[in-house]
Amino acid sequence: MPADAQPTTDPATTAATRAALRAEMPVAERWAYFDHAAVAPLSAPAARAIADWSSQAAQQGDTVWLEWAARVEATRKTAARLVGAGADEIALLSNTTQGINLVAEGVDWREGDNVVTLADEFPSNLLPWLNQQPKGVEVRRVATDRGRLDLDDLRKACDNRTRVVSVSWVGYSTGYRQDIDAIAEIAHDAGALFFLDAIQGLGVLPLSVRDTPIDFLAADGHKWMLGPEGAAVAYFRKENLDRLHATGVGWNSVTPQADFSQITELVLRPSATRFEGGSANMPGQHGLGASLELLTREPTARTAAAILETTDLACERLREIGAELATHRSAEPSGHDPRSGIVAFTLPGREPTEVRKRCLAAGVALSARSGRLRLSAHAYNTADDVDWLIEALRG
């Protein structure tokens, strides 16, 4: 399925997906939780996996380390299945920033090269590129209209010295979902690599690295994947592994692995694990893996349909109370669907941070970002949650 395809599921299956996920989200018992674009609550499977690791670590120490390692590898395989990659193309990292830096520091830059990104990117998808400026790298920032990218502007920003095009799939501020199929084509036409910051969509929006020729991506698990902070997944297209200089290498980057005394030379593993360096965040990756297993039980098209149904309803109700939406929700002339789980809005005459405080007191979680309020709905959110949100906003 193309990355911007509108999900086509019937209401019955969408409702079943919503109910199945909601049953595994303890937070729903107390909160109308609309803050998944910040830090999501843990799913019940993730919480159990972390608790199991903690109990084993306290009672058995490293006598079960091989079992822990096997669970980490299961997380890798589930992440690979989620994006249509090979398990050997998946690195398990600490956060999205680490994944971006592995690419930014790994490219063999030459003075006069440039990287193209967006003017309103989250700092993690800007600072690693700015950090290359002492090498003579130019950082070109393409302006957007509340997240909406004019593809012609992107095309004009690229030239034969563009080495990387790096964009967020979904903008954190307004929730605009980029046409990454078109962006990948523009990047590759310029001879550049395409990096995708997928943190605001991975796990709940359809994505296949085979259908969309992404070169690298990274996404932390503590947002839409319902995992803990400090556990992330990254994808490195296999044919591009050797196009990056490996940084942060350690015992887990090389071969052979079994006998540390035999590691006397730097022989990188022929897989994305070369970028993992040292010890894994075992409890974090166990928790993330458990949440990914939960999410992948349902087709991603159904999860996306549930989210977009809820955010469409929220937009309708927000307009009814006089809110002004900053988020683009209409299909593009090309047919591209810019919707995501994020909706940014203002309530004229009201301070976003104060409104957020009142909402939290009423049991409704949302964010204040860039001078606006921001709600981010997951597939388990219901129409009743939207009612709860609107009532809190009226207050």
From TrEMBL:
Listed Pfam families: Aminotran_5
InterPro entries named among the record's database cross-references: Aminotrans_V_dom, PyrdxlP-dep_Trfase, PyrdxlP-dep_Trfase_major, PyrdxlP-dep_Trfase_small
GO MF: cysteine desulfurase activity
UniProt keyword terms in alphabetical order: Pyridoxal phosphate, Transferase
EC assignment: 2.8.1.7
Annotated SUPFAM superfamilies: PLP-dependent transferases
Keyword match Protein biosynthesis: no
Record-annotated Aminotransferase class V domain positions: 33-388
Domain of life of the organism encoding this protein: Bacteria
Family annotation (Gene3D superfamilies): Aspartate Aminotransferase, domain 1 (3.90.1150.10), Type I PLP-dependent aspartate aminotransferase-like (Major domain) (3.40.640.10)
Keyword Transferase annotated: yes
Name this polypeptide is given: Putative cysteine desulfurase
Species name: Pseudobythopirellula maris
